[in-house]
DNA sequence: TTGTATGCGTTATCAA
DNA sequence: TTGATAACGCATACAA
């Protein structure tokens, strides 16, 4: 049986409405009474009942996050950051790993103040009839045109990377990315590459597009090892993800290739380089902190009932560090 | 503004208490009235308000899951299964990725019916004063002696595996596991190995204990490749995790080793083999379905207010498939 | 500065 | 078979 404000009131010898005010730090309560009440609440281990509060306030100070694919590691850092940001505004986040429809329904019953949806990229179920009184924000994929969406411009990211390499003289540039599933997010990166390379189809650059069988470290390793042992004309690599890059670096180390002297590398990446790699990577992408920031802001905005831009696209930035070098002449002749 | 039973009552021309009964499918309401009400509720997109319901019922039909380290992939399959199992009993699960203390506090305010904690293995904060009106169940690590815990017997798992290999004639058995962090869960596996091998310390078997630098596929790959290229006396490998095993298999494939003819392998594993490996692995561990089953049951039991065994240890099973073979004489001589 | 009364949406008890 | 009403825990407008 949990303790209520009435229990505190009894202990403190005041009315329970006074307790309610005191706990909310209202100026309508004298300091001594307030401190006394606070102390008793503390002692009794009082926890305000969210149900009761949200019933009267019509607000739960809670954001529901729909996360149907827990297995995927990538968004987990993002979630953590969003959680922290929202917490600073005294919002709690709660996750549901149910299917999107049922999760949204749950959150509606719980009267959360907003819902953030991490879409499943696999199946775009635009047909599903989502009913929600609560405002919804999508991240990643536009699944439902009725609700605003935030996404990052992956295509431009890879395009930027490619152009940069071209600017510093590279022509033989390889793109290593996962094209094994029909993940539109991964495909988009390839398109950015094709655009920068000024070709229509992937088949126009058979030697420069190196598909992997997944997004794991080892996939990058295999692709790079394969590429670098048999083909020496490549002077730069663009990697579609951080994990692939780690694999690529393992391959170059094994082959005793020096970065950036023998090979330039740019990695698509959102995550600030926490792990100490052998080298400071040149990366391209939208920093995850910026994504988290923008999502949190937008969430708070739609909670206020204000409307937001329907489709928010976050633009990537190139972060030039040590893993790229201009193409020197002696390199070209090798 | 969401629709309430009063809105439905008005539409249907009945009292709202009748609506309440009808929606709960009470026998106290005539069929025609019931169907009529149901229909209107449907049309209006009615969603029952959990706050109001749990306020009066003192029950939210919700289980809170504390999951402070979203990044870790391993438990995610488990959570998914538990979620499904509980859903079948009409319970909803909600996850929190906050720190354990704050997550538990949140769930208390939400008046969930039970809390499941996936402990952080890194820091055992037994000292933290956790206040909870709601019953708690720990999984993995016993962090707080006041609450019941479910765990799997990793030590026995590896011991079983080792003994089995010994039974079929192997003597030169290697254990590949992650000992890089001070993760007690991983350490426990090593102890099982040492017990079966009948030695006190890891230093007694320098050539047979192969530590990796992590639990990733590539870590297993490196360890195995290193081991198998320089040391040929090993006839069997016990792998501390499924991912390590995948790496090990890549190494053996590269080295053209035949499993089980040239080398026997047993993998620690909870997950039913979904991925089609080249070979049907002999595995040891507690099947994840069994873990999920037991956790769900226990959760439901403590929700009923009944007490459960304080420390539940799930015992592993050996699942002998194709990756192990008795040690033949010609092998021994090689 | 404190206390009283009302209502949030729902279930449950009792009366009709 | 239906309807009126109290109660859940809390916040708040209003009275004291």
TrEMBL record, chains A, B:
> Which SUPFAM superfamilies did the record assign?
lambda repressor-like DNA-binding domains, Periplasmic binding protein-like I
Entry's InterPro entries? Answer: HTH_LacI, LacI/GalR-like_sensor, Lambda_DNA-bd_dom_sf, Peripla_BP_I
Which superkingdom? Bacteria
Entry-linked PANTHER family: HTH-TYPE TRANSCRIPTIONAL REGULATOR GALS, LACI-RELATED TRANSCRIPTIONAL REPRESSOR
Q: Which GO terms describe its molecular function?
A: DNA binding
Entry keywords, A to Z: DNA-binding, Transcription, Transcription regulation
Stored CDD domains: HTH_LacI
User: What's the name of the protein?
Assistant: LacI family DNA-binding transcriptional regulator
Q: Which residues form the HTH lacI-type domain?
A: 3-57
């Amino acid at each position: 049986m949990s303790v209520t404000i009435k229990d505190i009131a009894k202990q403190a010898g005041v009315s329970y409405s006074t307790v309610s005010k005191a706990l909310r730090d209202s100026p309508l309560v004298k300091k001594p009474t307030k401190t006394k009440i606070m102390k008793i609440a503390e002692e009794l281990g009082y926890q305000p009942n969210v149900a009761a509060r949200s019933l009267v306030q019509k607000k739960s100070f809670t954001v529901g996050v729909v996360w149907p694919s827990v297995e995927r590691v990538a968004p987990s850092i993002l979630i953590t950051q969003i959680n922290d940001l929202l917490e600073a505004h005294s919002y709690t986040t709660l996750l549901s790993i149910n299917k999107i429809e049922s999760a949204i329904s749950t959150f509606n019953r719980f009267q959360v103040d907003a819902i953030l949806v991490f879409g499943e990229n696999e199946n775009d179920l635009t047909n599903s009839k989502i009913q929600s009184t609560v405002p919804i924000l999508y991240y990643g994929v536009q699944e439902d045109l009725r609700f605003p969406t935030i996404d990052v411009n992956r295509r431009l990211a890879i395009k930027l990377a490619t152009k940069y390499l071209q600017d510093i003289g590279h022509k033989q540039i390889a793109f290593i990315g996962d094209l094994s599933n029909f993940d539109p997010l991964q495909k988009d990166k390839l398109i950015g590459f094709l655009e920068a390379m000024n070709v229509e189809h992937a088949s126009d650059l058979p030697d420069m597009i190196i598909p992997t069988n997944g997004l794991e470290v080892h996939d990058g390793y295999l692709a790079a090892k394969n590429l670098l042992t048999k083909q020496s004309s490549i002077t730069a690599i663009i990697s579609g993800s951080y994990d692939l890059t780690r694999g690529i670096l393992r391959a170059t180390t094994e082959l005793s290739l020096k970065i950036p002297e023998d090979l330039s590398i740019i990695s698509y990446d959102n995550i600030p380089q926490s792990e100490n790699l052998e080298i400071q990577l040149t990366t391209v992408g939208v920093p995850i902190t910026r994504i988290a920031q923008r999502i949190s802001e937008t969430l708070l905005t739609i909670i206020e009932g204000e409307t937001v831009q329907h489709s928010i696209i976050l633009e990537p930035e190139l972060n030039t560090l040590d893993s790229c070098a201009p193409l020197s002449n002696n390199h070209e002749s090798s």
